[in-house]
Design brief:
The complex is a heterodimer of chains A (336) and B (212). Chain A is an alpha/beta fold and 336 residues long. Chain A has helices at 5-13, 33-39, 45-48, 50-62, 77-81, 118-134, 147-155, 157-165, 169-193, 211-228, 245-249, 264-271, 283-288, 292-305, 322-333, and strands at residues 68-69, 86-87, 96-97, 139-145, 197-201, 233-236, 255-258, 276-281, 309-312. Chain B is of the alpha/beta class and 212 residues long. In chain B, 57% of the residues lie in helices and 10% in strands. The chains are: A alpha/beta (336), B alpha/beta (212).
């Protein structure tokens, strides 16, 4: 196999041949202040301008040496397109929704021009820019929100979880069902724009909701989404999900992006080759507060455990030092 | 424990939010002591719920409904408790720090602290250092509880502690911290008095801090 970033990532993602080293990827944001300064693309423009978005993504490959580029840094592209008022933040602050337009669980209607809404179009355009610049050489990841995450934004997180806790299954399922077409449309639009794989971020987070919630309310939807997706899917669910790895392996995704809270060896054992794994360098203690040596040790531990692609566990803090991100790449370049 | 108190405890544990007010009123009308109703009914129930959460038997959706059930029961009892010293374990200010809009964990902790007999002033989310310090001066709480869900907002906790020290207030108020990215090590680094991993631990921590 030709050793290019693209080939290393895609082969690892699909459980294929190992190249000369494990790839380093970023299913979630690796945007940080030092990276913004190094490439001249900053928040909040990198959320709303396709060129700034693509430039910041490309810096992850050109400056840090990551093998994938991923141009979506917020979780609010879909919610903005579905009617939330989104504050796009600033250099020091991630975007956030200011309201929950369906707190009353009223019907969510996906607008016919959903894919042309500015917050969606910007990502599609950024992916196309990246395709033209590094397509076939570097793996291009898209990212979409799943119905669970979008339901947090539509109904309000606490309100939605309260409804789940009250056992209001019809209401919960109706909202989730109404959001599934948005996820599928966005995934396939990102593939059409040039993505090699798409991250499905759906925050049925460990410690927040249980495996039984995932199994009854979300697993069937993930199976429907992956069946209609036009390419490889990487599932991202935060938190300690050791108790639901077996369910993720049945969802039809090709890979799961996991956190440090799940031990790499146990994760590899649990999925048993049914899906690939990407992760799981700790963000708050190691990447943010640790030294490059600490990062290196964690990366080597994950590589030796058999994790297919090495990555930060989740979107990194904005003040993460570049030296710590480079330590992931250094560990991977030592090979298996 | 009387059957009525047992029913109240079960209603909170089993999340019977629609039945709790009737049950609590029934117990009061039947002459149950308010202290037993609180301690053996509502508070004991949330101890059970806290343990269930800690063991992974239930998760936040169920915890939220139990906490809401407990709060509804408490609202029936509260007006009758005025003047009873036993009902007041101290004043706690709760807040999510500046730049952070996440509040579910803080809300659950606030409800459970109220259930455990503390007076709670919940300042809400996105609270600046200046507001927090001003509230400590104004209200003189025994404890301040700070929450952050984002790694980007954790440093705000340190700023609050530094500001309290600068104003000479650290001797009179304890600070406990929590939230997904926060841990014991971070709490110690910034000089907090306590860290709690979940709501049940936060109640235990508050009890310990007030007792010291």
């Amino acid at each position: 196999m030709k050793t290019s970033s693209h080939n290393l990532v895609m082969s690892a993602l699909l459980g294929g041949r190992k190249g000369e080293r494990p790839p380093v990827a970023n299913p979630t944001s690796i945007a940080c202040h030092e990276l913004m300064e190094a490439c001249g693309a900053y928040f909040p423009q990198a959320h709303t301008d396709p060129q700034a978005m693509a430039d910041l993504a490309l810096a992850g490959h050109e400056i840090l040496g990551f093998d994938a580029v991923m141009p979506e840094y917020s979780v609010h592209q879909e919610s903005a397109a579905l009617g939330c008022e989104v504050d796009w933040g600033d250099r020091d602050r991630m975007p956030d929704a200011k309201d929950a337009p369906h707190a009353d669980f009223s019907d969510v209607i996906i607008p016919p021009d959903f894919l042309e809404k500015p917050s969606i179009r910007v990502v599609l355009d950024a992916i196309s820019i990246l395709r033209r610049q590094v397509g076939g050489r570097v793996a291009i990841f898209g990212k979409v929100m799943g119905p669970w995450t979008m339901a947090y934004h539509m109904a309000g997180t606490q309100n939605f979880l309260l409804s789940v806790g009250m056992g209001e299954e019809d209401q919960v399922k109706r909202m989730l069902d109404q959001l599934v077409p948005a996820t599928i449309a966005h995934i396939n639009a990102q593939f059409a724009a040039g993505a090699d794989a798409v991250v499905l971020a759906d925050h049925a987070t460990g410690n927040l909701v249980g495996p039984y919630h995932y199994e009854t309310l979300l697993l069937p939807l993930h199976q429907a989404i992956t069946a209609q997706a036009g390419g490889p899917i990487i599932l991202h669910v935060c938190g300690n999900c050791a108790d639901r790895l077996n369910l993720f392996a049945q969802s039809g995704v090709d890979c799961y992006h996991f956190e440090w809270q799940v031990d790499s060896r146990q994760a590899v054992e649990a999925v048993a080759g049914r899906i690939s794994l990407v992760g799981n360098i700790n963000n708050p203690q190691t990447l943010l507060q640790g030294a490059p040596e600490d990062v290196y040790k964690q990366a080597r531990y994950a590589i030796e455990a058999g994790v297919n692609l090495i990555a930060p566990e989740c979107a990194i803090p904005l003040t993460t030092p570049l030296a710590n991100l480079k330590a992931i790449v250094a560990a991977a370049r030592e090979g298996y | 424990m009387s059957e009525l108190i047992q029913q109240i405890k079960e209603a909170v544990v089993l999340r019977k939010v629609k039945e709790i007010e009737t049950l609590v009123r029934g117990a009061i009308d039947a002459g149950e002591s308010l202290e037993d109703l609180m301690n053996d009914g509502l508070i004991a129930a949330m101890d059970v719920v806290g343990k269930q959460f800690g063991s992974g038997a239930i998760f936040v959706p169920e915890m939220l409904v139990s906490a809401m059930t407990m709060k509804k029961g408490l609202e029936v009892v509260k007006p009758l408790l005025s003047g009873q010293a036993a009902s007041d374990r101290g004043l706690i200010i709760m807040a999510t720090v500046k730049g952070d809009l996440h509040d579910i964990g803080k809300n659950i902790v606030s409800m459970m602290l109220e259930g455990a007999g503390f007076r709670v002033v919940d300042l809400g989310v996105d609270q600046t250092v200046e507001t927090l310090v001003a509230k400590v001066v104004e209200l003189k709480p025994q404890v301040v509880g700070l929450s952050a869900l984002l790694t980007t907002t954790m440093p705000e906790m340190k700023k609050v502690l530094e500001a309290l020290t600068e104003k000479g207030l650290r001797g009179s108020v304890k600070v406990m911290v929590g939230g997904a990215p926060v841990d014991e090590r971070f709490a110690q680094q910034i000089g907090a008095d306590g860290y709690a991993a979940d709501a049940a631990q936060a109640v235990d921590m508050a009890r310990a801090l007030v007792a010291n």
